[in-house]
Write a structure and sequence with these properties.
The complex is a heterodimer of chains A (337) and B (241). Chain A has 337 residues and is of the alpha/beta class. Helix content of chain A is 37%, strand content 28%. A six-stranded mixed beta sheet of chain A has the order 6-7-8-3-9-10, with helices on both faces. Chain A has a four-stranded antiparallel beta sheet with strand order 2-1-4-5. A four-stranded antiparallel beta sheet of chain A has the order 12-13-11-14, with helices on one face. Chain B is mainly alpha-helical and 241 residues long. Chain B has one domain. The longest helix of chain B is centred in the middle third of the chain and has 28 residues. Chain B is globular, with a radius of gyration of 19 Å. Chain B starts with a helix and ends with a helix. The chains are: A alpha/beta (337), B mainly alpha (241). The complex binds adenosine-5'-diphosphate (ADP) and magnesium ion (MG). Magnesium ion binds next to helix 1 of chain A. Adenosine-5'-diphosphate (ADP) binds next to strand 2 and helix 1 of chain A.
């Protein structure tokens, strides 16, 4: 514990556990977020996303592990750590009976913005979040989209280093989702952001990094593209030079290709044609070999479509596999009890 | 102090917008006004005083204080705004003090309105009868002190349940528990009874309301209030578990 590094990571979590009574919400989570990164925190409902965020913001205390925000331990100096954070809780609870302006003023005051800078700070937050038209309105009267903007405005009014957004787009209509995403992307240009979601495209839209959490554990960590390019599908339709090709022979031919893991037959509307769906091994691309093999066998390719295994499927694979494992681990105990 | 005042301000805005708080204050004024004129002795010429009014203050506050304090923490826990509050850079005791100050100010506004009574007494008292100001000043002082201790415990009740109705009933019971030892003298042997009675808010209330301001009575209220505030702070801190 000699000199601290010039700039500690914005978030540093090590071996974090959280028990709510007998529920083990977090089972040892470790990750770091460097300054400036925009991280998507992905996981099915009940995975532990909110719990992790509530611990980061100090709303609940960890059972075990180390949690630091900008180098400040959340356990040792909770108030100090909180000054660095802007937080949008899940469901964005707000004081319905306050005016937008009144509310932001309250937050600015309690966030210790000097009296002569309060006006400016509110103006900036209002402008960034597009709240000009509703400044004087009661929060209770606002649409869901505007409420979300108010939630974001209160999170940025003190210009924090770290934004923690718990499901910022859940419950919005598609137009509002787009608006809020754009807004978050703007904010992400200058701040470290960690946002949780169970909607996958969101991460591809906004985040440079995805952390996938399932059953209280991190199951994947990487760039969204990297996570989604592992493995993929190739859909193809082939026909013979004269009439329909032989199904068994074609299937065997495809199966023999080096990077093909599985071959499934599909239905097709094309006359005298066969359709297949290939699963590739890892991130390999068997298209060249495939094309050559088809030519050799005097088959004609009518269509070919390569699809990366979407983040969606990676996610489902990871989270369901993990759920299965956890169930195995848990059952002997719960049965004994 | 800065944070405490910011929270108190916000809380007062909420009271200002809350129909419940307005109704509670209005009913308080109607009931206290009725009690005042009924017991003031205005109807019995020459005996004008506020003693009857102050004697009933503990019972009156026992009902009205929990109605004002029930929402303080329960409402925020129910609506979820509590999470925003508890993740601001403020300490738990600042949250508690801020809310306490807001509720106390609210009740003091009600109390201020009752100033009409002594003023009207002074104006319409029977000629020749004297209005003794000592008990009136003492009465108001002890009323504020009593309010503090009831509010502190009413707020603790509000921290113990997310349900405002339960918080109200719990608050009423806690205030009742602070008041009832006064009646111990009726059932316990004299010496023990006197000791138990000493614990009652009512006992000290009557001392000060007589116009005799004793440091021990003031200290008693400050202690009870502090205990209530500390309990609330601990209960709030425990929600982080
Ligand atoms: N206050 C609480 N008391 C008891 N269990 C809780 C509490 N909050 C969350 N949990 C449990 O912890 C687990 C993780 O929840 P949460 O972090 O909210 O998941 P997510 O945000 O990923 O949907 C769930 O099983 C949930 O039921
Ligand atoms: Mg959640």
């Amino acid at each position: 514990m000699s000199d601290a590094p010039a700039s500690p990571p914005m978030i540093q979590i090590e071996g974090l556990t959280k028990h709510y009574g007998r529920t083990h919400a977090l089972r040892g989570i470790t990750f770091e977020v460097p300054k400036g990164q925009v991280v998507g925190f992905l996981g099915p409902n009940g995975a532990g996303k909110s719990t992790t965020m509530k611990i980061l913001t100090g709303f609940v205390e960890a059972t075990g592990g180390i949690v630091k925000v900008a180098g400040i331990s959340v356990a040792d100096d909770p108030v100090g750590a909180r000054t660095r954070i802007g937080y949008l809780p899940e469901n964005n609870p707000l004081y319905e009976d306050m005016m937008v302006e009144e509310y932001l003023e309250y937050i600015a005051r309690i966030r210790r913005i000097p009296a002569d800078k309060v006006r400016g700070a509110i103006d900036t937050a209002v402008a960034r979040c597009g709240l000009q038209k509703v400044r004087g309105k009661d929060i209770g009267e606002l649409s869901k989209g505007f409420r979300q903007r108010v939630g974001l405005a209160q999170a940025i009014v003190h210009d924090p280093d770290l934004l923690i957004l718990d499901e910022p787009t859940t419950g919005l209509d598609p137009n509002q989702v787009v608006e809020i995403r754009n807004l978050i992307r703007e904010l992400g240009k200058e701040k470290t952001v960690i946002l949780s979601t169970h909607v996958l495209p969101e991460v591809q839209h906004m985040c440079g990094r995805a952390l996938i959490i399932s059953e209280g554990k991190i199951v994947a960590d990487g760039a969204p593209d990297q996570l989604s390019s592992d493995g993929g599908h190739i859909d193809l339709v082939v026909t013979g030079k004269r009439g329909a090709p032989d199904l068994a022979a074609t299937r065997a031919l495809l199966k023999a290709l080096p990077d093909v893991a599985e071959v499934h037959e599909r239905t097709t509307g094309e006359k005298d044609a066969l359709a297949f769906s290939l699963t590739t091994k890892g991130s390999a691309d068997p298209r060249r070999a495939l094309f050559a093999a088809l030519v050799d066998a005097e088959l004609v390719l009518l269509s070919l479509d390569k699809k990366a295994l979407g983040l969606e499927e990676t996610f489902r694979k990871l989270t369901t596999a993990e759920a299965g494992k956890a169930e195995h681990a848990d059952h002997p105990h719960s049965k004994a009890a | 102090m800065h944070n405490t005042l910011a929270i108190a301000r916000r809380e007062l805005t909420s009271y200002f917008h809350s129909p419940v708080a307005h109704v509670v204050l209005a009913v308080f004024l109607v009931v206290s006004g009725w009690l005042f004129f009924y017991f003031s002795g205005l109807l019995i010429v020459g005996k004008a005083s506020m003693r009857g009014f102050f004697a009933l203050c503990p019972l009156l506050f026992m009902l009205f204080v929990p109605a004002i304090t029930m929402r303080l923490i329960a409402e925020e826990r129910k609506s979820g705004t509590f999470e925003g509050l508890m993740t601001l850079p403020v300490a738990e005791h600042e949250v508690v003090l801020g809310k306490f100050l807001a509720a106390l100010s609210m009740m003091c506004v009600g109390l201020l309105c009752t100033f009409v009574y002594p003023v009207s007494l002074a104006l319409i008292k029977a000629p020749g009868s004297a209005l003794d100001m000592g008990p009136i000043i003492g009465g108001y002082l002890s009323a504020v002190l009593l309010l503090s201790s009831f509010i502190a415990f009413g707020m603790w009740a509000s921290a113990l349940s997310k349900n405002q109705i339960i918080a109200f009933i719990l608050g009423l019971l806690l205030c009742f528990a602070l008041w009832i030892p006064d009646k111990a003298i009726l059932i316990l042997p004299a010496s023990l009874g006197a000791a138990v009675q000493y614990l009652s808010v009512n006992y000290h209330f009557e001392n000060i309301a007589r116009g005799v301001i004793d440091v021990r009575d003031v200290l008693y209220y400050l202690t009870v209030t502090t205990i209530g505030l500390v309990l609330t702070t601990r209960t709030i801190a425990a929600t982080r578990q």
